[in-house]
User: What shape does this take?
Amino acid sequence: MPRAPAPEDGSLFSFPIAWSLLVTETIRCHWAQKPINIPYHDKEWGVPVHDDRALFEFLILEGAQAGLSWDTILLKRARYREVFDRFDAQKIARYDEKKVRALLADPGIIRNRLKIASTISNAQAFLKIQNEFGSFDSYLWKFVGGKPIQNSWKLHKQVPAKTKESDAMSKDLQKHGFRFVGSTICYAFMQATGMVNDHLVTCFRYVEVNGKIR
Ligand SMILES: [Zn+2]
Assistant: This one.
């Protein structure tokens, strides 16, 4: 960022504050303030995801987050990918007791027995959905009519924690055997995977995420 010019004549009339207002700063959603979450906000959050493996990863990570901060999950994400076979549901669906014990002993992930057990049963449910609907992608995106819902929030307090779409997704996922998929978890998932654009209109990513796919 350019610095304000130093007053050379000792004049009282240097305007560092006015100068700083002239310099355009990158404006982001209020929650993206730290080195751990800024790159995530700037590159991933809200970009439509259509890859089954990536969708499964987000669903598991959002469920693992329950009761914790998302930053905690971001810090552990690399380890999650490592110990959960890069979220290969075919492999996770076959995890045995020995693997579960190893996961429970791993400080690099959230060591919660119910969350770990749900990852395995969710992998099994995920495979059934793929069989039934062709892909997890086509199954999930039906809940938003196949394309991202474009919101236009001005203030972060306007952003909901859940919606009728996330309620419907939650209910249906549970019907198909998924756990840790309450409506607020589903809504966070929908925001992360771009099913809904919840960047504030003032955020530089608001316009950028439109039309992007990963
Ligand atoms: Zn944003």
